[in-house]
Amino acid sequence: MPFLGQDWRSPGWSWIKTEDGWKRCDSGSPELGTENRQYTVNHNIILNSGEEIFNNEECEYASKKRKKDHFGNDTNAQSFYREKWIYVHKESTKERHGYCTLGEAFNRLDFSSAIQDIRRFTYVVRLLQLIAKSQLTSLSGVAQKNYFNILDKIVQKVLDDHQNPRLIKDLLQDLSSTLCILVRGVGKSVLVGNINIWICRLETVLSWQQQLQNLQMTKQVNTGLTLSDLPLHMLNNILYRFSDGWDIVTLGQVTPTLYMLSEDRRLWKKLCQYHFAEKQFCRHLILSEKGHIEWKLMYFTLQKYYPTKEQYGDTLHFCRHCSILFWKDYHLAWLFKDSGHPCTAADPDSCFTPVSPQHFIDLFKF
User: What are the coiled-coil residue ranges (predicted)?
Assistant: First the structure.
């Protein structure tokens, strides 16, 4: 059996791409050295542990291709669908062959436009976070490219409008942890595509994290009414609308008045009762020195052990009658009584079910 070296063109030879085509060169040539210096990966930064992913020989191989071939993140070159609905078929029939996968659904549904809608932004971010935790290796190569293209748009949107940076930081933290484990451990066997692609993607994620870490909120001068000018009962009503405790803590840091309102025991009690059951309170009861229940500490303690309820302004919907997953356009539904997909049911609204991010992933577990 012939021996296949690092490059398929010849065993053990080193090649670089020039304007005249591929050119073979020695390992000590200046051309290859320049290429290596341009695309060498800092593995100490990636792993945060002083360990290297590959040895020097593998690092040399990782530097042969151009970075644009490793991670083509050009959004103008996308060839993905932008559909409002897809048919979720889990088995082959006479009319349809094959089945719909998670990657296919992620490619075809219009997530790029969804992140521009403030009602759907949190939903898409949460979906990307769940995929990063457990489903990243199940995506096809095209779906993986689409995943990082959408993530790039999300990060740029946050850097521009300074909204929801905490959500994106949590997403990138989970994604970087997953990529480190996959690249260090079983990257060569389970990841779709060349290992160098994933190293470059990991570098990009670390760069995004650094940009968000350095994000500075600029104070805009406004001569009109501000949030602090509202009456106390209106400010209190705003705080009671929040379903995330970290949002309440963040808002309480704006002014002393908001801090006083954010420390209200009744506010945190209502938040705990909304997210958790009474049995869960008894298992993790926290009392103050005076014998009162510390509801704020209770919330953050229970959050570590139990999942909280998720709230989204808008979600994907699933039609049980047609087995169709779709985005529901409320403007068209109100004006033209359009359900968002070609439904044949007599009463379409009775067949619609909101799809949470976890339910979206579960739809494609066969």
Answer: none
Beta carbons within 10 angstroms of residue 60's beta carbon: 17
170 in the same domain as 139? yes
Helix then strand count (H, E) for the chain reads 19, 6
C-alpha 157/C-alpha 171 separation (Å) is 15
- 218-226: average pLDDT: 68
Is residue 77, in this structure, part of any structural domain at all?
Answer: no
Residues 284 and 333 in one domain: no
Mean pLDDT is highest, among 7-11, 22-26, 96-100, 171-175, for: 171-175
- pTM given for the model: 0.71
Please, which pLDDT band fits residue 73 given cuts at 50, 70 and 90? very low
Give Dmax over CA atoms of the chain in angstroms: 82
Structural domain includes residue 34:
no
For 330, the domain range is 320-359
Is the same domain home to 110 and 185?
yes
333 and 270, same structural domain? no
* One domain for residues 111 and 150: yes
Rounded Cα distance, 271 and 264, in Å: 11
Question: Which long-range contacts link 169-173 to residues 24+ away (Cβ below 8 Å)?
Answer: 169/209, 169/212, 170/129, 171/125, 171/128, 171/129, 171/132, 172/205, 172/208, 172/209, 172/212, 173/209
- Looking at residue 43, its pLDDT comes to 46
Compare 204 and 186 and report the one with higher pLDDT: 204
Q: What are phi and psi of 267, to 5 degrees?
A: -65, -45
pLDDT band at 228; cut points 50, 70, 90: confident
Give 134's Cβ-side CA count (13 Å radius): 9
- Do 291 and 327 belong together in one domain? no
Here the tokens at position 183 are 């690249």
Residue 326 belongs to a domain: yes
